[in-house]
Amino acid sequence: MTPTITLTVNGEARTVALGDPRVTLLDLLREHLDLTGTKKGCDRGQCGACTVMVDGRRINSCLALAIAHDGAEVLTIEGLARGAELHPVQAAFIAHDGFQCGFCTPGQIMSAVGLIAEGQAGEDAERIREGMSGNLCRCGAYAGIVEAVQDAARSIDNANRKHVA
Amino acid sequence: MKPFDYVRPATLAEAVAAAAVPGAAYLAAGTNLIDLMKDRIATPSRLVDLTRLPGLDQIEDLPDGGVRIGALVRNADLAQDPGFVRRFPAVAEALLSGASAQLRNVATVGGNLMQRTRCAYFYDPASACNKRTPGAGCDAQDGESRLGAVLGWSEHCIATHPSDFCVPLVALDAVVEIEGPAGRRALPLDQFHLLPGTTPERETALAPGELIVAVRLAPEAAGFADHARYLKLRERTSYAFALVSAAAALRFDGERIAEARLALGGVALKPWRAREAEAVLAGEAPSPALFARAAEAALATARPSGDNAVKIELARRILMRTLTLAAAGTPVPLPALPGSPFAAVPGAARHV
């Protein structure tokens, strides 16, 4: 199989010559497409910094082989805002101080976008904490993160939930 | 990662043929396999990507009242399927207590059964491990044995199987459907994972080239839905493997337990069905003393494999607590913290 794939990234069709089937989706985004908003933390699926949406679901891009995602629709932190208008989850993270150093933040925000789209947590703080447990924040901004997710969940009503991403 | 060929078959027959070469491995989501490949613990020369195979991602209600879960069904989809959760709540609770939302969104049913141990010595190429290199020895024996086994281990390997999902499945007599070069066969999940014995490198009953296509639950397994729980003791509130865990499913006849199904996780290299404890419970009225007797029976043959004798007592206690909460009734909806052992026990003083 030729190691060239086509996928939609932030609404734009991209064709990438991988050169090697070992390339992960994370490395494809960062090294091949220069989308460095998605972070490489542990590179082992343990920290959540690499979280992106693939076909509408949040996943760890570090454990996904790019070649296995030929044809996928990918949304990264770079694709959330509409021009100068921040996505409601981005705005809520700023409003609630949901970060300090910022390294985990793109993953936290993409994970929150996924959580709200899943519709299982609502505004319940305990369910939000559980639902965000795959995203570590070593600065310990968890209190602000939970408030931000609650706030964003409120501002994205049920009718719009499926279109949150 | 070691270089590999990537093959994406369009049919099951093509997949089996593609995997017939030595060094080939099947790939589903890869949440465990890619991790192992990055550290060169797994070094396949060919990956056969199963994720585009048709028909393996369905949750089918069978005419006899049972359910057939395709091997490619995602953990999150199964755990949130309303019909499945209603009939098999302990299985859903176990799924939701495992990994993170990101991992559950991709990890598959078949991949969960196939995941490798999380023994730190298996993951560390500098340590001796009979699983990685048969005959090399087992550095876990004299090492940090917190995640080590207390049942069914041998001097060759003290690793445990990390799955949550498999624990209630084995309690409920799940059956694995297997496809391979010699055709299709079915095997009870209880016989799927192998204890280490003298060959810890042999982990499952799969022959070379075989793969899981589905997991089935019989209609009787839904008869426990009103009193079924999975509890998991771990060192963090969430997103951690079990130190010990337990699935308990009870079917009542009036005030008495007509039938009990019990299994333990984190204690052996396979999900550990506790049939002796089930026999203790059958026909009895639930009480703390009864549950204590059942827990004694479940751990009667346990012995520490290192500095982990505490796990025997922890396993007894998690089983007693799981029985207590199962007898109290399955919560609807499932708790905010699925599998948490710190939920209040009805009728008891709250303590955590």
CATH class of the largest domain in chain A: Alpha Beta
Percentage of residues in helical conformation of chain B: 25-40%
**What's the number of helices of chain B?**
12
CATH fold descriptor of the domain at 225-328 in chain B: Enolase-like, domain 1
CATH architecture of the domain at 225-328 in chain B: 2-Layer Sandwich
How many strand units of chain A? 5
Work out the oligomeric state of the chains in this entry: heterodimer
Top CATH class of the domain at 225-328 in chain B? Alpha Beta
Succession of helices and strands of chain A: EEHEEEHHHHH
> Uncertain runs of chain A with pLDDT below 50, 5 residues or more?
none
The CATH homologous superfamily of the domain at 225-328 in chain B is termed CO dehydrogenase flavoprotein, C-terminal domain
Q: Strand order of the main beta sheet of chain A, please?
A: 2-1-5-3-4
Unreliable segments of 5+ consecutive residues of chain B: none
Strand content of chain A: 5-15%
Q: What is the β-strand count of chain B?
A: 12
CATH superfamily of the largest domain in chain A: Beta-grasp domain
Q: Which topology of the largest domain in chain A does CATH recognise?
A: Ubiquitin-like (UB roll)
Characterize the structure shown.
The complex is a heterodimer of chains A (165) and B (352). Chain A has two domains: 4-77, Ubiquitin-like (UB roll) (Roll); 88-161, DNA polymerase, domain 1 (Orthogonal Bundle), CATH 1.10.150. Chain A contains six helices and five strands. Chain A has helices at residues 25-32, 88-95, 105-118, 125-131, 142-155, 158-161; strands at residues 4-9, 12-17, 51-54, 57-60, 73-75. Chain A has a five-stranded mixed sheet, sandwiched between helices. In chain A, helix 2 (88-95) packs across helix 5 (142-155). Chain B has 352 residues and is an alpha+beta fold. Among the domains of chain B are: 1-52, Uridine Diphospho-n-acetylenolpyruvylglucosamine Reductase, domain 2, CATH 3.30.43; 225-328, CO dehydrogenase flavoprotein, C-terminal domain (Enolase-like, domain 1, 2-Layer Sandwich), CATH 3.30.390.50. Chain B is 26% helix and 18% strand. Chain B is globular, with a radius of gyration of 20 Å. The model of chain B has no long low-confidence stretch (mean pLDDT 96). Classes of the chains: A alpha+beta (165), B alpha+beta (352). The interface between A and B is medium-sized, with 35 and 32 residues.
